[in-house]
Specification:
Layout (H helix, E strand, L loop, with lengths): L5 H4 L10 H4 L12 H13 L10 H4 L6 H9 L3 H9 L5 H7 L3 H4 L7 H4 L5 H15 L14 E5 L3 H12 L3 E6 L7 H4 L8 H14 L2 E4 L9 H7 L2 E4 L19 E3 H12 L14 E5 L3 H13 L3 E6 L25 H4 L3 E4 L1 E8 L5 E12 L2 E4 L5 E4 L2 E4 L11 H5 L22 E3 L2 H4 L4 H19 L20
Parallel strand pairs: 1-2, 1-4, 2-3, 4-14, 5-13, 6-7, 6-13, 7-8
Antiparallel strand pairs: 9-10, 10-11, 10-12
Length: 494
């Protein structure tokens, strides 16, 4: 194990962020210097030493990738960073993504999270992870791993988010010729245009895509599969097809006034902001500059909108959530090692704005010219299985821009899915069997398109497992690729 008394002698410590006033003036990561991995180096070995190398490491239960967490914690504490990145890459293709973007269910499952008052809190697993991979890139230890020989089999991957990229890298390294299709003009999916720069600079994504290209993965951006190329075209050209287009139909809010100018989905707003942050021309850009902004939805996407609105110079920002404010401590209903619903403060929340809980929107209110000017809200309480308005709690708040960040309800229906004639499950996601195969021979499904909206760590795990299913199908039933989770696996929750 690492330091036998580490968790007793070393308090939990995370990387310090740049001052709010400084980081609001740019779009760079909120951490100083070269980013979070570099910022962590002075403290991370001691933090890794807090790991107890439990006999039964429950952190594994929180991580669908099966990350070998105690092993690379011990290696970092012993200053064997090259061995640490080998163990980290053994289970995770993209630790630089999860180390920045994953909410770390591994940490809430850490044994030190059972009694945080005594232990000082869980090991900073996510921070150790990102420190390892960022140092590995700095030292030149992350190099292309092209296959020794090619199988002659070809695979099309539709979608270049985390599940599509993970499947593509695994299959390329197995010797197959893989082409990744992306309808946006650059590869990366929501990693590029959905995640703000201050959470993950796109150089982090680009360096991994460069590695994959050098390994032999072919990238075809700007191709709208289902329009520019049909599903039948793919089945004719390739031996197998992987659908990894994500869950992209946004949940809407059909309230009175929904058609007013100034109400937008988060995924209309964030991609434009990301493009503008990189100096691209964005005609008719949706911007928060000088406006009262209301974000409906209290999750990570809402926080991304919050930080973006601050940087654009919003007059005020209010984030609404229909659920009550979570408690500061783990609730009884969410016992260890499940992922608890507790009050969390992201970097965007540190930067300002107001958060309103247990409220519901009743109406969007417009001016005489059809533009949004306010929202009418009411407080709610959960009774008889639904949220009921509390009489006498109505209020009106100013808003010239509303951003809907309430999640997604499934993959886009028509087009490609109709062309392929794949079956959907009762939730509207693409049906698949235990090997990630759809109802159509040779067509496989990975990530949110089959699972529904989920976390980046689950997307990568599904991409890896789907790759094993594809490889086994192409090779007549055998594969050496790991399959970390079945499609039926679910997060550890109460």
């Amino acid at each position: 194990m690492a330091d036998p008394k580490g968790f007793l002698t070393t308090p939990r410590e995370v990387a310090h962020r740049r001052p709010v006033g400084e980081r609001l003036r740019d779009w760079n990561e909120v951490y100083p210097g070269k980013g979070i991995g570099h910022a962590l180096l002075p403290i991370i070995s001691a933090q890794a030493g807090r790991c107890m190398d439990c006999g039964i490491p429950f952190c594994h239960q929180g991580c669908p990738l099966g990350n070998l967490i105690p092993e690379w914690n011990d290696l970092v504490w012993r200053d064997d960073w090259q061995a640490a990145i080998e163990r980290l890459h053994a289970t995770n293709n993209f630790p630089e993504f999860t180390g920045r973007l994953c909410p770390a269910p591994c940490e809430t499952a850490c044994v030190l999270a059972i009694d945080e008052a005594t232990s000082g809190g869980a090991v900073t697993i996510k921070n150790v992870e990102v420190a390892i991979i960022d140092r590995a890139f700095e030292e030149g230890w992350v190099t292309p791993q092209p296959p020794e020989w090619l199988t002659g089999r070809t695979i099309a991957v539709v979608g270049s988010g985390p599940s599509g990229l993970a499947a593509a890298q695994q299959l390329t390294r197995s010797g197959h010729t893989v082409a990744v299709y992306e309808r946006a003009d650059k590869i990366g999916g929501l990693l590029r245009y959905g995640i703000p720069e201050f959470k993950m600079e796109k150089r982090i994504l680009d360096r991994r895509i460069d590695q994959m290209a050098r390994e032999g993965t072919i990238f075809r951006a700007g191709v709208n599969v289902g329009v520019d190329v049909t599903g039948q075209d793919l089945r004719t050209r390739y031996d197998a097809v992987v659908l990894a287009m994500g869950s992209t139909i946004p949940r809407d809010l059909p309230m009175p006034g929904r058609d007013l100018a100034g109400i937008h989905q988060a995924m209309e707003y964030l991609p434009q902001a990301n493009r503008a942050a990189h100096g691209e021309e964005v005609p008719d850009q949706i911007t928060a500059a000088g406006k009262n902004v209301v974000i409906i939805g209290g999750g990570d996407t809402g926080a991304d909108c919050l930080g973006t609105a601050h940087r654009q110079g919003a007059k005020s920002v209010v984030q609404l959530e229909i659920m009550p404010r979570p408690s500061d401590e783990r609730p009884v209903a969410h016992p260890w090692p499940t992922y608890p619903m507790i009050f969390r403060v992201s970097s965007a929340h540190e930067e300002g704005g107001d958060r309103k809980y247990a409220v519901s929107t009743q109406e969007f209110i417009g001016d005489d010219e059809g533009r949004l000017r306010a929202l009418r809200l009411v407080q709610v309480k959960f009774e008889n299985g639904r949220f009921e308005p509390v009489p006498g709690t109505e209020e009106e708040i100013p808003a010239e821009l509303v951003l809907l960040a309430m999640g997604f309800v499934g993959p886009e229906r028509g087009g490609l899915l109709e062309q392929l004639e794949v079956e959907l499950d009762e939730r509207g996601n693409i049906e698949r069997d235990a090997s990630y195969a759809s109802s159509v021979d040779g067509v496989f499904v990975a990530g949110d398109a089959g699972r529904g909206q989920s976390l980046i760590v689950w997307a990568i795990a599904e991409g890896r497992a789907c790759a094993a299913g594809v490889d086994a199908w192409l090779r007549g039933g055998e594969t050496a690729l790991p399959a970390p989770i079945p499609p039926t696996a679910r997060p550890l929750m109460a």
